[in-house]
Amino acid sequence: MRTWLTSLLVFSLCVAFAQAAELRPPAQVTAGTPFPIASNGTGEGTFYLIGPAQISKRKVNLGGEISVQGDEVEQAGMYTAILCADQCTSVHFYVRPAQTSRLSLLVHPSRVPVAASNAISAVAFVFDRFHNLVLTPQKVDFKVVPPGGAAISQSKTTANGTAWIRLTSARKGGPAKVGASIGDLAEMRVVQQVASDACNLRIKAVPGPKGIAVETEPVRDCSGNFVPDGTVVSFTKTDASGKTTVDAPIKRGVTQVEMAVSGPARISVASGVVNGNELSLGGAR
Amino acid sequence: MRKLAITILRRLILLLAAGLVIVCFSFLQSQIHAASEAPKVDLNPDNVGPRAIEELTSKTIARDYANSWKTMAEALDKNRVDLLDGYFTGFAKDKLTQLIAQQKQTGVRIRYDDRGHKLDALFYSPSGDAMQLRDRAQLGIEILDGGKVIHNEEANMQYLVLMTPGADRWLVRDLVTTPEVKP
Amino acid sequence: MMKRVLPIVLAVATVVFIWIAWVQSGGIERHRMFSARSPEEAVRLLLTAAKSRNWDAAYSRLANAGEVEKAAFARDLGGSNGSLRTYATLENFNVWGLHADNQEATVRAKLHYSTAVGPLDDVRDIKVRNDGSGTWKVVWPTSKVPKLAPQVIPVNYLRWDVINRGAEDDWGVQNVDSPQVRIVSMNALQRPDRVVILGEIVNEDTVPAYVNVNAALLAPDGSPVAQETSFDKISHTLLPKQVSPYRIDFPGMKLQQIKSVRMDAKAMLVPATADPVIAVTQQRMETDALGKKVLRGELLNQSGQIVNIPHVVASYYDANGKVIWVSDGYLDQELLPQIPVAFAVDLPDDVAGKVQTYHVVVNYYQKNNS
User: Fold this and answer.
1) Domain ranges within chain B, ordered by starting residue
2) What is the distance between the alpha carbons of residues B179 and B160, in angstroms, rounded to a whole number?
3) What architecture is domain A100-194?
4) Angstrom distance (rounded) from CA A250 to CA A228
5) Does domain A198-281 correspond to CATH entry 3.30.470.20?
6) CATH superfamily of the domain spanning A19-96
């Protein structure tokens, strides 16, 4: 019995001495902040730190504290610390993001027709100074400044580092400023609110040097905004010589084309999928 | 008689050896094949907001995320930064590029044995230009220093993924492990 | 003796070799055709010279050389001002007589050019005259190229320039969005040798768009069977609210093989200008000299710059306003300012019967800013 107990004691001691060195990281680590990892054991070992964008390897003395520099833990996420002496032991710990210091603001679209319901979206992503998404809830203040109007504000709390809002464009065209802020951090974007499709597209014909000049009335959308210059207006004339089409852009609010007419003719106008009025001309010119 | 028995035995041993070689070769082949295949990715698009995921986008996301893991594992295993170009961009690419540079510098290498991913779409931006997902991944992780394995584990990892659309595919823009591991 | 024989043999051999080389290079034919004995021969001779761009030789075949400027003649056959014909090669031609008497004949020539945008055919009815000695010569049309009087044409149309986000800019920094385009109609047709997807696309935005339409034919299980793009059967650059037809061909496919079609319109924001405005005048459906149904008309470049290579894309509608065909054609002639140029694009006979109306858009390529 004595022999058996002695053997057990010796075996336990051997196991205790042979046990690999252990690592004890702190419970909470913040990105970019130096911290120590406690180790036990004696002698020398190799310490490895493996993170999302980081691999460190160095010789350390066991039993003391292993210093981890701030630049070794800049990325948030899981890290694996490994200590190898006779054997290797490892431990995982998480690095959480540092304080909010960047705001990515995605505002879409950069151009939007006026009076379009929920057509503008603003999404804010909250990052720390190492580009880690800050996952703890943060209050983001969104602000919209329409052209010539009063600013409208709305607060949203981030979920998984993200907050968003949707907006309806104003009835009046022009640039609207869309911003987001957290404390002193602020980002601003500009959305161009542009005229919608042409409304009540009308043409008139007057004699011109090469036949007749067909001209639109000032082209506006249904909210009264001028359709931007460069927008194409299609004129179609049908007479004895066949059909003539001219795609001409709006210039200074109106479009004008000249057409030769032989005999009775019909002239119609369209812009995109919007049709305008039709003119019937009686005689030759 | 004894000579005949020895001859038969030799032939049997040769045959067994040949069989063993063939079996080993097929096994290796299957392993290589398995390594070159993209991992299985299941995407749950049901709880996403504010925008619903289009059917085609849902397929594309699963395909591209699987390919991103395949190329990441290969890039880390072979220390090839160029492989990251296909499916990574932004912070995720920067981080992995840095990781590979450090692998080269230290001689340490991370090897993933990918057993599959369960993706939950969390956020799909109203304009369709960003998607955030949670990935519950089953991985075999091996860390080697030179040829020596210094860490080996079977892990259930949880990632928060940010993907953004590229010209013809979705790219991983951010990939970060998060602590709540609930397999 | 041997001393004399050798030089004689060498001299004879040299003469024989020179004769063989002359025959090989078409000398006999040239000699035979130098004085063309038939109207067809006269046209063939002229076109053979034109094929090798030997304008002098071709010009010498003209019966009315005094009325036609050599430069204008060379321009007519060889192109000018960076037009498509200047980049084209006359590959071959077919010639056949239409009618002839002892003094005059009309010969139809079908010229096959090869160009960067595909083969180009030019059919001409050429008058040929007997000079009295039995030699036939070509009477080249003397139509003068209209010249515009020197003038200043003020052009003050809009131009759109684009400054995009830089590659080094952070993600989330504001960028300009791609233009909003929409496919307004789509029609799938079974043609004898192919499936054709056609329709129209509109730029709904306030900025120009470079558009391309892709289509994928899907099998009953949803897998793509074939994918194609509109390639050049579309007007790629669309100004705000401009509409373009598109056509996508799937050679060898059958409609029965597919369950649905997946359409994808891609649009890029590109710098563009609203100039030149090209009017499409006198559009009418006709039957051409070869008996094919064609849509004819004239293009009138209203700007002050030369349009080097015009490209016409036409959509045809049935009585219900549905797009039933889209055809296109390149003009091998440049568009000079204010000078009308005729065009014709063909369409299948079975489609022509159903056409109620049509819409033509003009795409163009310019040397300086295509």
Assistant:
1) 1-36, 39-177
2) 10
3) Sandwich (2.60)
4) 7
5) no
6) Immunoglobulins (2.60.40.10)
- Give the closest-approach CA distance of C262 to chain A in angstroms: 23
Chain C residues touching A244 at Cβ < 8 A: 279-283
User: Which residues from chain C sit within 8 angstroms of residue A260, using beta carbons?
Assistant: 281
Given CB atoms, is B90 within the 8 Å cutoff of chain C? yes
The band of A130, judged by pLDDT with boundaries at 50, 70 and 90, is very high
Q: What is the ipTM of this complex?
A: 0.78
* Interface size, chain B vs chain C, as Cβ–Cβ contacts under 8 Å: 4
Options 3.40.50.300, 3.40.50.720, 3.10.450.50, 3.90.180.10; CATH of B39-177? 3.10.450.50
Which of these, C60, C141, C43, lies nearest to C98 by C-alpha position? C43
Preceding omega of C245 cis (within 30 degrees of 0): no
Interface check for A57 against chain B (CB to CB < 8 A): the answer is yes
Cβ contacts (< 8 Å) between B98 and chain A: which residues? 53-54
pTM of the model: 0.74
| Residue A257 structure tokens | 């084309």
Question: Which pLDDT score is estimated for A135?
Answer: 92
Query: In a 3-state reduction of DSSP, which class is residue B142?
Result: strand
Q: Report long-range pairs for B116-120 (Cβ below 8 Å, ≥24 apart).
A: B116/B39, B116/B40, B116/B41, B116/B42, B117/B39, B117/B40, B117/B41, B117/B42, B117/B65, B117/B66, B117/B69, B118/B42, B118/B44, B119/B41, B119/B42, B119/B43, B119/B44, B119/B61, B119/B62, B119/B65, B119/B161, B120/B44, B120/B47
Distance CA C344, CA C312 (A): 9
Task: Report the distance separating Cα B77 and Cα B75, nearest Å.
Answer: 6
Q: C-alpha C39: how far from its chain's center?
A: 28
Q: How far is A68 from chain B (nearest CA, A)?
A: 16
Query: Scanning every residue of chain A, which has its alpha carbon at the shortest distance from the alpha carbon of B152?
Result: A90
Residue pLDDT, tens place only, C175-231: 788 899 999 999 999 999 999 999 999 999 999 999 999 999 999 988 899 999 998
